[in-house]
Amino acid sequence: MSAPVDDLMGNKLTSPIADMSDDGGSSSVEIEVVDDRPEEDRVAPRDSSPGESGDFDSEIEHADNKVRNRINRLRYEYHEQRRQKEAAARMQEEAEQ
Predict the structure, then answer these.
(1) How far apart are the first and last CA of the chain?
(2) Cβ atoms 17, 7 nearer than 8 A
(3) pTM for the structure as a whole
């Protein structure tokens, strides 16, 4: 069942590497995170706001209808230009073939 053991360079090893997960007992390691920065450098965690979360639609919810319409129109124009470029690239590929 075991395949020949070799190192990363492909050289055969003389003895297999011990399996770290097969230690026979259950040992647990406790980790304590310590912030060693001075008090004046420490900042409180930020509250999640619509702008920081990266959720574009929730940010638009708070905008005025005029602004929302403008953003939607610009987004549509951007994607329309992208679609036209992709279509032109596909046509060029077909012409080359």
Answers:
(1) 50
(2) no
(3) 0.34
